[in-house]
Each structure stands twice: as structure tokens, then as C-alpha cells.
Design brief:
Layout (H helix, E strand, L loop, with lengths): L9 H4 L3 H9 L7 H6 L1 H39 L4 E5 L2 H15 L11 E5 L5 H8 L5 E4 L9 H12 L2 E4 L7 E2 L7 H19 L37 H29 L1 H16 L4 E5 L2 H14 L10 E3 L4 H10 L7 H7 L5 E6 L5 H12 L3 E6 L4 H5 L5 E4 L5 H21 L5
Parallel strand pairs: 1-2, 1-3, 3-4, 4-5, 6-7, 6-8, 8-9, 9-10
């Protein structure tokens, strides 16, 4: 097993970043599994190469259908349909929660809130929940159909089709719109799926500016898009030209897939030193009986859910490891928020659960989330190892070195940040198992 020895500390863990980044940046797409098993740099190279290839293949093949699906989803929303996400496995549940929050609480200025809800296995059998909730104009998106050994997700999806819902899935699930991701690595599949449902959310809005192209609507000339014309030049076209709009949306799908490929590379290349150092210490602490505590807000809360799922129920035959999701108990979160304030929702739980020898991992797209910062500070006071995944320029977390190991995704586009951060924590999980016993 590879020994991922690296010094602790925010400043020190970044000391070898330049050399490591240069080494990883000279990636070889044909890096062998044997190389990756013996060298963290080779492991990161191989991980990046796998993701780049699968991302390009999937979106190259599915961009046109994705544009068509955005059009059909807009028609459903225009008829007061809702997006209903379903999933049963822990990883699938994190995607269910993630896609729902993206549609209900848009983070991009100008995007409208769209009705979305999630059905997960913990609330009863999925088919029974679906039977009570689903309406004919709804859109049902299923996660983890191939991993759900109970068959509940497939059964709920079949019920949705019978009811007349538009159905979407990411496996051999007999959905109306099925988008299988060809990769043996469940982490890679999940990352591509996340990009795909983010793209659906981003581009379904295009058709709300072309309501004459929606089924049952009369065509009319769209408004002059004015200053936004340079972003979506096709918005000034007549609404009778569906083919032109679909072609432009298809091009936008490709553009967004290329954007995440570049951002993922930046994140993993620049973050190799921090990830390797964090993984080595995390492995030592977990082997000594420590627990990983994960937290974040909104979409980042669902990332915390996924981090914990990956440690508790890992793929590849890896051993399960102790992990706690500080976002999962609504009674605790709402009690602290109501009685003290939202800044304390994670730090109070660090006080309750955190022990010397544990590890705290905070996820923030801005690096400035006050409750994440408070939790990291409390964790340090209690001798927890602290790890942060942040976007933009790193915010206060990076500037003030508020965590021992910081990985920065250098973008201001929140969906892309979240997608690259998923690659980072998936790679962290892989590096933990590559770390040598005893460090």
C-alpha cells in the first residue's frame, strides 16, 4: 500500500503543492492501475484521466438528447408539473436531496424557483410513497436504480410511467429518458450524473423564454434579450424555430461539460498535496478509532451526506469507516437555529460529538459560510483534524488558513464548483484506502 506521508497544517500541507501539481499536471491518460496503486501522484493522474474520458464520451453522445429533455421538462413545468426525485441507497439519497434543492432554491441570479421534492427509502417503501405523491404532469428522476437491491426504485419508476409522468434514470431502468454512464467506477458515474442534472436545471430555463415552443402554447416573438444576448444569442429568434433553439442548447451542454473537465483538472492538480496529506492523517485517525464529521449548507449539505455515505458504505470492497453527517437531523438543526442562530448549527454539534483524534470536513462553495467557519474553529479548539473544500478564491477559509488542509476549486459558478468538489472528496476517499497502515 502506498504511504501518503505529508506534514500537517494549512501552510505546511501546501508546501509541496507546486511540485506535486506539476507532477500530476503532466498526466498520462494511459497511467496503469499498478502505477496508481504505488504512487499517489499516479493515482491522481489515473483518476483524472478516467473522469476526463467518461465525461467527454457521455456528453458527446448525449448532448442532443439532453437538449430535447430540457424542452420536454419545460413543457411539464409550464403545466404545473413538479420534479420528483427518487432514490433508496445512501449515495442515491444525496443526489435526490441535491437535485431537489437546486430546483427549489436557484443559486444563479435570474433563475426561477421550480417545484421539486425528494422521496427516499427512509420514509417508507418508495412505490407506496410514489403512489401517494405523483401526478400525471410530474417529472420523475431516479437515482441508484442499478444499486438498489430491493427493486423499489425501479418499481416506483414503473408506477410513474403508468401514471403518465415523464421519467428519467441513469441506468438500465426502462425510463422514458435513460442516460447510462459507462464506467465501472461508481464515483465517476455519480460525478457525471451530477453534472447532467445540473445542466438540466440550468438549461430548462432557456425554454421559459420561448414559451411559444412549449406544447399547448401559441407561438409569439420573444422579447429582446438585451444585454444577455451575448450569453444566449438564440433568445432573439422567433419561437417557431425549435430546431435552432435545440441546437444552441446542445452546444451549451457541450460547453458546460468542457468547463467541468477543466475545473476538475484544476481542483485535483492543485489540490493533490492537500488531499494526499489529509488522506494520510485521516487514515491514521480512523484506524485509531476516530470519526469523520462532515457538514455544509444547501447543495454542500448533500455533499456532506455523500461523503459520509462513501465512508460508511464504500464501494470496491473497502472497509466501512466511522463517519457522522452533521446535516442529517432536522430536529437538531432547527432547534439550534431557532434558539441560538444558524451560525451555530454545526459548531454546537462539534461540541457534542467531536473528540480529540476525530476529523472535521467542511464543504463551502464560497469559503465564507459563517457556520462552516465556526465549526472549523470549534474543531480546531478540540484537536480535530480539519479539512475544507472551498470554491471561488477560497474565501476566508483559505485566506486565513482556517483549516489544516484546504482544497480550492477556482470558479464562481456554483454548479461546476460542486461537481469538482465531488471529485475531490471521492479522490480523498480513494486515497484514504491507499494510505499505508499506521501512516
Amino acid at each position: 500500500m502506498v504511504r501518503l506521508a505529508a506534514p500537517r497544517g494549512g501552510a505546511r500541507s501546501r508546501g509541496g503543492v507546486t511540485d506535486l501539481a506539476q507532477a500530476v499536471g503532466n498526466d498520462d491518460p494511459h497511467a496503469s492501475g499498478a502505477d496508481a496503486a504505488n504512487d499517489p501522484i499516479a493515482l491522481v493522474r489515473a483518476a483524472l484521466a478516467r473522469r476526463t474520458a467518461v465525461n467527454a464520451s457521455f456528453f458527446g453522445a448525449e448532448a442532443g438528447r439532453t437538449a430535447g429533455l430540457c424542452h420536454r421538462m419545460a413543457e411539464r413545468f409550464a403545466r404545473d408539473g413538479r420534479l420528483v426525485a427518487i432514490g433508496r441507497t445512501p449515495a442515491a439519497c444525496s443526489d435526490v436531496r441535491h437535485v431537489a434543492v437546486e430546483f427549489v432554491h436557484p443559486v444563479i441570479v435570474g433563475k426561477r424557483a421550480l417545484p421539486a421534492l425528494g422521496l427516499v427509502g427512509g420514509s417508507g417503501p418508495l412505490p407506496r410513497q410514489a403512489d401517494l405523491v405523483l401526478e400525471p404532469d410530474d417529472i420523475v428522476i431516479a437515482f441508484g436504480t442499478d444499486e438498489d437491491a430491493t427493486g423499489e426504485t425501479r418499481a416506483a419508476l414503473a408506477l410513474a410511467r403508468e401514471r403518465g409522468c415523464l421519467t428519467i434514470a441513469y441506468g438500465a431502468a426502462e425510463a422514458e429518458w435513460d442516460f447510462p454512464v459507462e464506467s465501472p467506477d461508481p464515483f465517476v458515474r455519480q460525478e457525471v450524473v451530477e453534472t447532467h442534472y445540473h445542466v438540466l436545471w440550468e438549461l430548462v430555463h432557456v425554454f421559459f423564454d420561448h414559451r411559444g415552443l412549449l406544447e399547448g402554447r401559441q407561438a409569439r416573438v420573444v422579447h429582446d434579450p438585451g444585454e444577455s444576448r451575448f450569453l444566449y444569442p438564440f433568445l432573439g429568434e422567433r419561437e417557431t424555430d425549435l430546431a435552432a433553439v435545440l441546437d444552441d442548447v446542445r452546444s451549451s451542454v457541450i460547453m458546460k461539460s468542457e468547463e467541468i473537465a477543466g475545473l476538475r483538472r484544476q481542483t485535483l492538480v492543485e489540490g493533490t498535496g492537500a488531499l494526499a496529506a489529509a488522506a494520510g492523517e485521516l487514515r491514521r485517525r480512523l484506524d485509531a478509532g476516530g470519526t469523520l464529521l462532515a457538514f455544509g449548507n444547501g447543495g454542500s449539505a448533500t455533499d456532506a451526506m455523500d461523503v459520509v455515505a462513501d465512508f460508511r458504505l464504500p464501494p470496491h470492497g473497502w472497509p466501512p469507516r466511522r463517519a457522522l453527517d452533521l446535516t442529517e437531523d432536522p430536529a437538531i438543526l432547527s432547534a439550534i437555529a431557532n434558539d441560538i442562530g444558524t451560525d451555530a448549527i454545526f459548531s454546537r454539534q462539534i461540541i457534542a460529538y467531536g473528540r480529540s483524534g476525530d476529523v472535521a470536513i467542511g464543504v463551502s462553495t464560497s469559503g465564507n459560510s459563517r457556520n462552516v467557519i465556526e465549526a472549523l474553529a470549534e474543531a480546531r479548539r478540540r484537536d480535530l483534524l480539519t479539512v475544507a473544500l472551498v470554491g471561488y478564491d477560497g474565501g476566508r477559509v483559505a485566506a486565513e488558513r482556517l483549516a489544516d488542509h484546504v482544497v480550492v476549486t477556482r470558479s464562481e459558478h456554483i454548479p461546476r464548483i460542486q461537481e469538482a468538489q465531488a471529485s475531490a472528496y471521492h479522490l480523498l476517499r480513494e486515497l484514504v484506502e491507499a494510505a499505508a497502515d499506521g501512516g
